[in-house]
Amino acid sequence: MAIGLLTIELYLPVTNSLKEKRSVLRPLIARLRKEYNISICEADAQDQLSRAVVEVVCVSGNRALAHRLLQNVANRVESWRMDAQMIDYNIEMIE
Predict the structure, then answer these.
(1) What is the per-residue pLDDT across 27-43, written as a single tens digit (0 to 9) for each?
(2) What is the largest CA-CA distance in the chain?
(3) How confident is the model at residue 49, as a pLDDT?
(4) How crowded is residue 89: how many other Cβ atoms within 10 Å of its Cβ?
(5) Among the four 13, 24, 46, 60, which has the fewest Cβ within 10 Å?
(6) Angle subtended at Cα 32 by Cα 51 and Cα 47, rounded to the nearest 5 degrees
(7) Distance between CA atoms of 28 and 26, rounded to whole angstroms?
(8) How high is the pLDDT of residue 13?
């Protein structure tokens, strides 16, 4: 069994309040949960308006499948929203 952790750092250029930040992140998180079988949460930078760190975790029977799923999630986030720009991402595999 393999556990994969994807950490995504996002830049949110148009948020002026925490309420606006949540209005950008909440649909992103909900859509990823719906499209992929993952666990996802905002993990860091909750008090910063222009930055968010989202962590995604998946469990798979195969390390390659878990890595591929997390890579697909990262690609989806990068191409999906114009108001949340991906700065960086990191995939870690835990066995």
Answers:
(1) 888 988 988 888 998 88
(2) 42
(3) 81
(4) 19
(5) 13
(6) 20
(7) 5
(8) 83
Sketch out the chain's domains with CATH numbers: 2-94 (3.30.70.1120)
Indicate the pTM of the whole model: 0.84
| Residue from 61, 52, 55, 40 nearest 92 by CA | 55
Retrieve residue 94's tokens: 């835990």
Given a cut of 80, is residue 18 above it in pLDDT? yes
The token pair that represents 45 in the structure block:
């930078």
Q: Would you state the pLDDT for residue 56?
A: 93
In the three-class reduction of DSSP (H, G, I as helix; E, B as strand; rest coil), residue 79 is classed as helix
CA distance 59 to 67: 10
β-pairing verdict for 39-44 and 85-94: unpaired
Average pLDDT over residues 7-23: 85
Is the pLDDT at 94 greater than 90, yes or no? no
If we measure between CA atoms, which residue out of 43, 39, 66, 69 comes closest to residue 54?
A: 43
Tell me the C-alpha distance between 6 and 56, whole Å.
5
